């Protein structure tokens, strides 16, 4: 029979062996910072750490889901041969060609010209414009929102969907399973869709009894609407009241400020390809892709645009690679708007390096936050940014600046659903649109000027003088962001 000391040493040896095995397994195909964070969690809280890792430590979708994405990508690439020549390539900055090629290799969608692009920065007007577009539908309406809720603000959109179904238009709807489960009026929303005759499916459902299980915090965060393949909308806005109907938000008077874009032209069919891929992944039903030829409209006000889907259904962090590359290519100015700014190492390095080499870099975020851990993790990066010369503007409360976009120099913009944070880079399925055009960047500058006018600029001395407790909270929250 073992004595106490021998048993204790045996337990220590077993724990060391367990940690060694866990270290090798956890470190495989994982960023060093994330691997270290997981190993430390397993060392210091072995049982709880292992349990958490088993629940949220696997950062890829099931193989079957990834195979479906590859199948769709092959179909898209076969369909889009030569489309990348339908653009104003002679007007691009020299480096943009390689960025476009990168995006097409990652997301399978080309840069195409001949697009009308309109910005919709007003929350209620955006909903009204989407409802008006649905009222023009004659063939199909494809709806996909991370959060989709029937309430007083979104009622006009749902009414337009019902009218479309009555006209014989096919209405197909996708929304994230867990996001809608956690918000109010889910029953009323699904009942309304069923009553009108729209076909709805959940994105990334968590129903283990049906064999539908994956890392539960891996979500489909895309927001898009496509009408007849000719009108498209995408950006940061969910289909819900600007307060998100949460009691805490209503009590604090919080309202979300967003930026959506309205697309008209060839890029709409590329946006629709993102919906078709998700529909196929959730239903096994492969809807037809538009294969008609594209002729470049010579109108001078039309723009080149490239849709980039990203997320764990792809083998690469598509948006991370695009964002880091664009920031490295900037020569004069980088303006970033991200409500949740918890950058991956390469993105942070690109931003700090750009500022250090004389590029004017500014970051717009919110003075207040709705997610405590992310809010405090984000604040832990401010000092390093300020020391590098990045200008940080915090949008005044009670508005939460939830728009997600950035501009590079004078003629390149990115607008979409993706935050500049680790979650959007690796865990969430996102969609972004890369736009080339000086006139469009000028319009983006007007939006950014509005943010700046309603924001407080953070000064380094002031930031360093904040309470010690706040610094501790910020740094601890930053550690949790590595557990991915």
Which assembly state applies to the chains in this document?
single chain
How much helical structure, as a percent, in the residues? Answer: 40-55%
Q: Count the E strands.
A: 17
Determine the mean pLDDT. 88
Work out the strand percent: 15-25%
- The residue ranges in which pLDDT falls below 50 over 5 or more consecutive positions are none
Q: Give me the secondary-structure category.
A: alpha/beta
List the helices and strands and how they pair.
Blueprint: H1 4-27, H2 32-44, H3 46-56, H4 63-79, H5 96-107, E1 111-120, H6 123-135, E2 140-145, H7 155-166, E3 170-176, H8 177-181, H9 186-196, E4 199-203, E5 223-227, E6 231-235, H10 247-252, E7 255-257, E8 260-264, H11 267-283, E9 303-310, H12 318-329, E10 333-337, H13 345-356, E11 360-366, H14 372-379, H15 382-388, E12 391-395, E13 399-401, E14 405-408, E15 412-416, H16 422-427, E16 430-436, H17 438-453, E17 455-457, H18 460-464, H19 468-480
Parallel strand pairs: 2-3, 3-4, 7-13, 10-11, 11-12
Antiparallel strand pairs: 1-8, 1-9, 2-5, 5-6, 6-8, 9-16, 10-14, 12-17, 14-15, 15-16
Helix pairs in contact: 1-2, 2-3, 4-11, 5-12, 6-7, 12-13, 14-19
Summarize the structure.
This protein has helices at 4-27, 32-44, 46-56, 63-79, 96-107, 123-135, 155-166, 177-181, 186-196, 247-252, 267-283, 318-329, 345-356, 372-379, 382-388, 422-427, 438-453, 460-464, 468-480, and strands spanning 111-120, 140-145, 170-176, 199-203, 223-227, 231-235, 255-257, 260-264, 303-310, 333-337, 360-366, 391-395, 399-401, 405-408, 412-416, 430-436, 455-457. With 484 residues, the chain is α/β, with parallel strands linked by helices.
């Amino acid at each position: 029979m073992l004595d106490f000391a021998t048993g204790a040493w045996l337990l220590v040896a077993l724990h060391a062996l367990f940690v060694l095995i866990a270290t090798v397994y956890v470190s495989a195909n994982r960023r060093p910072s994330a691997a270290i964070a997981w190993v430390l969690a397993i060392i210091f809280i072995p049982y709880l750490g292992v349990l958490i890792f088993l629940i949220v430590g696997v950062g890829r979708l099931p193989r079957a889901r990834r195979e479906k994405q590859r199948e769709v990508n092959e179909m898209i690439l076969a369909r889009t041969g030569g489309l990348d020549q339908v653009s104003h390539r002679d007007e691009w900055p020299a480096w943009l060609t390689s960025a476009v090629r990168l995006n097409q290799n990652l997301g399978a969608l080309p840069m195409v010209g001949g697009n009308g692009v309109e910005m919709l920065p007003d929350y209620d007007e955006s909903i009204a414009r989407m409802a008006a577009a649905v009222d023009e539908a004659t063939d199909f309406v494809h709806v996909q929102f991370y959060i989709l809720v029937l309430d007083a603000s979104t009622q006009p959109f749902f009414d337009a969907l019902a009218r479309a179904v009555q006209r014989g238009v096919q209405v197909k709807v996708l929304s994230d399973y867990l996001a809608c489960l956690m918000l109010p009026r889910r029953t009323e929303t699904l009942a309304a869709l069923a009553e009108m005759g729209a076909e709805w499916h959940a994105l990334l459902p968590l129903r283990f009894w049906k064999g539908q299980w994956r890392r539960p915090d891996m979500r489909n965060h895309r927001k898009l609407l496509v009408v007849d393949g000719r009108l498209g909308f995408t950006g940061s806005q969910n289909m819900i009241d600007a307060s998100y109907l949460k009691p805490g938000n209503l009590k604090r008077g919080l309202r979300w400020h967003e930026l959506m874009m309205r697309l008209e032209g060839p890029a709409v069919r590329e946006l629709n390809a993102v919906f078709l891929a998700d529909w196929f992944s959730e239903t096994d039903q492969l809807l037809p892709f538009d294969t008609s030829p594209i002729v470049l409209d010579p109108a001078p006000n039309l723009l080149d645009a490239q849709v980039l889907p990203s997320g764990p259904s792809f083998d690469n962090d598509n948006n991370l690679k695009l964002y880091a590359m664009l920031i490295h290519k900037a020569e004069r100015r980088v303006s970033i708007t991200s409500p949740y700014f918890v950058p991956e190492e390469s993105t942070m390095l690109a931003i700090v390096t750009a500022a250090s080499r004389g590029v004017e870099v500014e970051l717009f975020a919110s003075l207040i936050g709705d997610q405590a851990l992310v809010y405090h993790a984000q604040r832990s990066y401010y000092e390093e940014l300020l020391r590098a010369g990045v200008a940080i503007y915090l949008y005044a409360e009670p508005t939460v600046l939830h728009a997600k976009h950035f501009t590079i120099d004078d003629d390149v913009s990115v607008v979409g659903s993706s935050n500049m944070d680790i979650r959007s880079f690796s865990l969430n399925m996102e969609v972004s649109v890369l736009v080339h055009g000086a006139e469009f960047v000028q319009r983006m500058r007007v939006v950014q000027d509005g943010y700046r006018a309603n924001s407080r600029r953070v000064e380094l001395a002031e930031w360093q003088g904040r309470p010690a407790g706040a610094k501790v909270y910020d740094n601890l929250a930053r550690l949790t962001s590595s557990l991915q």
